[in-house]
């Protein structure tokens, strides 16, 4: 017997919902029931409990994605599952097409070493704060970056303090004295050793990251690998990634060749020479480089956040490794795995055409302004009129809020968001902040789908319930 789904909606969305379901021609049976309120987004669990008198023989109930309240308790009360659907009706086909195979982004097999590049100049509190921030963004190892010819009297104390906070620690230096000190202080990893400094591995228990003795010399890297194998010690190798126009393509070849020569060794890639030294958004750079890592079985990266434009590099790498792991496990392209790396654009920014928005506007019977965007521009409307523009300033004379400062301020904020979303090709939902993916930390107090969210300023009116 086919599944029977009951769709609950509001008056304004009912026609669109029926049309979308008809176009979908789904395998399941369905019933559409509107609960007697105008705006579906204002639906709550308590409202459903009071107003729904018949479940029409359904096996489960689908409510709008912005429906608030405790659906788990409501499900128990009604005796069948009640679930949230997508926030936009136009996403309903995709919701049903992908729901059962939503990728698991909790898994990854790549470690992120996050470097505190100016550690000698930071006091202990500064080092611990930076490490905590890196860990919150996904770092697995905190790399203490030493500086050439710069005293670091508190190196040992820094290693000890980070270990006490539960961090795995690496010490990164070109000076053998720093590496020995860090290793004896209890560092888990040392960056970097080469064939002429392998003696350090005989004095400390830290796992070394091996590099060529001379830049680009893979034969010297081979000898260092042989030296560590003769010691029966674990290690990683890093052929060194070069910046664009300074050997980048050749350095990618070196990683490929290292993997060919040593199918089983653990490899690290220092991605900072691309993220830091290329003035382009780092999310895309991280995605591409971690794609190379995924294909070559490189399971460690060294990330930095020195340049202001690279301030989110660790968080981006964390999400990229999860997306690429899921794609590789599924034997799929890294598409439809998660949208967090698309900070500026979205796959489907305009769910409705201008004609469809105009049709919706014809059903509005109240003075509250609704704002939507389409490929054509920004649209604001209420019962008194429909106005469109690409510049919010063009709309102001038509809004009649010159004597209502609070409302004017609210509409200014919302129209600015709408313009940004239209310009970039992002989703815009009235009364919601724009989604910038992993480029921005989520708000400290995230929206709880079980909590009741106040209606936005334009919808703060009685629902007649």
UniProtKB/TrEMBL annotation:
Residues of the DUF6513 domain: 3-87
Top-rank taxon: Bacteria
InterPro entries linked: Dihydropteroate_synth-like_sf, DUF6513
Protein name (Swiss-Prot/TrEMBL): Dihydropteroate synthase
């Amino acid at each position: 017997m086919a599944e029977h789904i009951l769709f609950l909606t509001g008056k304004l969305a009912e026609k669109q919902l029926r049309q979308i379901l008809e176009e979908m021609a789904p395998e399941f049976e369905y019933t559409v029931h509107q609960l007697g309120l105008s705006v579906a987004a204002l639906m709550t669990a308590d409202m459903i409990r009071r107003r729904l008198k018949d479940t029409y023989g359904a096996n489960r109930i689908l409510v709008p994605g912005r429906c608030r309240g405790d659906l788990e308790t409501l499900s128990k009360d009604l005796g069948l599952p009640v679930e949230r659907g997508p926030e936009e009706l136009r996403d309903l086909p995709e919701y049903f097409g992908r729901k059962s195979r939503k990728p698991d982004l909790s898994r990854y097999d790549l470690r992120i070493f996050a470097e505190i590049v100016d550690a000698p100049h930071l006091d202990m509190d500064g080092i611990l704060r930076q490490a905590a921030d890196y860990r919150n963004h996904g770092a697995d190892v905190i790399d203490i970056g030493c500086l050439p010819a710069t005293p670091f009297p508190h190196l040992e104390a820094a290693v000890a303090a980070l270990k006490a906070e539960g961090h795995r620690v690496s010490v990164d230096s070109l000076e053998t004295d720093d590496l020995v000190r860090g290793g004896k202080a209890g560092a888990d990893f040392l960056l970097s050793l080469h064939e002429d400094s392998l003696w350090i591995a005989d004095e400390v228990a830290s796992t070394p990251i091996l590099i060529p003795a001379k830049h680009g010399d893979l034969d010297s890297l081979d000898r260092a690998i042989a030296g560590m194998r003769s010691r029966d010690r674990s290690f990683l190798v890093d052929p060194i990634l070069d910046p664009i126009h300074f050997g980048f393509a050749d350095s990618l070849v070196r990683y490929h060749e290292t993997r060919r020569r040593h199918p089983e060794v653990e490899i690290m890639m220092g991605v900072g020479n691309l993220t830091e030294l290329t003035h382009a958004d780092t999310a895309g750079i991280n995605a591409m480089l971690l794609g190379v890592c995924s294909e070559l079985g490189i399971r460690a990266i060294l990330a930095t956040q020195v340049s202001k434009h690279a301030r989110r590099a660790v968080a981006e790498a964390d999400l990229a490794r999860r997306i690429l792991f899921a794609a590789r496990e599924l034997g799929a392209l890294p598409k439809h795995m998660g949208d967090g790396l698309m900070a500026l654009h979205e796959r489907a920014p305009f769910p409705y055409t201008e004609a469809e928005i105009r049709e919706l506007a014809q059903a509005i019977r109240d003075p509250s302004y609704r704002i939507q965007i389409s490929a054509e521009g920004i649209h604001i409307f209420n019962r008194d009129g429909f106005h469109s523009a690409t510049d919010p300033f063009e709309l102001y004379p038509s809004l009649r809020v010159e004597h209502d400062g609070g409302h004017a301020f609210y509409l200014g904020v919302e129209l600015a968001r709408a313009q940004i979303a239209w310009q970039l090709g992002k989703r815009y939902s009235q009364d919601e902040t724009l989604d910038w993916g992993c480029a921005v930390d989520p708000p400290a107090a995230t929206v709880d789908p079980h909590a009741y969210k106040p209606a936005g300023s334009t919808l703060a009116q009685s629902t007649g319930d």
